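If I may wish for something, please sit down with the protein I am sending here and say whether C-alpha cells and residues agree:
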Amino acid sequence: MRCGAVIVAAGAGTRLGGVAKALLPAGDRTFLARIVATAGEVGVAAGDVVVVVAAPFRDAVAAAARALGTIVVDNPAPERGMGSSVACGFAALPPGLDAAFLWPVDHPWVAASTLAALVAAGGGAPAHGGRRGHPPLVAHAQFAALAAAADHPDGARGVLRGSLAAIPVDDPGVLRDVDLPGELEVDACVA
C-alpha cells in the first residue's frame, strides 16, 4: 500500500499566544520534522506528504516543509476552518496513492507503530482508551470527498463520520495535541 499524508499546519496558534505550531520543538526536532520522520518510518515518502500552510506563518512553515522535501500548498482562506485546509491538502496529493494520513500538526507524539497498525488494517482511526485520535488513515476512495470538505457543513469530520473503523492502539500520542501553553510544557517534559 502506497501511503501519503496531509499535514494541516495552517493555524495561527492563537491559543498558544500566536506561534507556528509546526515550528515548535518536539524533542530534538520541530513538530513538523518529527511528523514527517515518523511517517517515513512506515514508508511514507516525503514527496507524498502535503503540508498545508497559511498566513501568518505561511513563509516560515513553507520553508521548513520544503527543506524536508514535502509538497507545500497554501490555504488562501484559513478563516473557513480546518475543513478548508483538509480540502486544500487532499486536492494536492500526488497521484497513485492508496491512502493518506490526515495529520494535524499539533499531534507530533504519535508512534510509528500506530501508523503501522493503521496500514496493516487498511485504514481507520487510531483509538486509545476507547477514544479516537489522530491521524486517521483515509482510503483513496475518500480523497475527492475530502478535497470538497470546505463545503461540507461539518468539514472533514462530517465527510469521514461513520466511515473509519476504530483501530485500538497502545499509544497515548494519538490523543495528545498541543493547543494551550500548559500542554506544550507537558510535551517538553516527555520529549
Summary: Residues 185-191 have pLDDT under 50 and may be disordered. The chain has one domain: 3-175. The two ends are 31 Å apart (CA to CA). The first helix runs from residue 31 to 40.
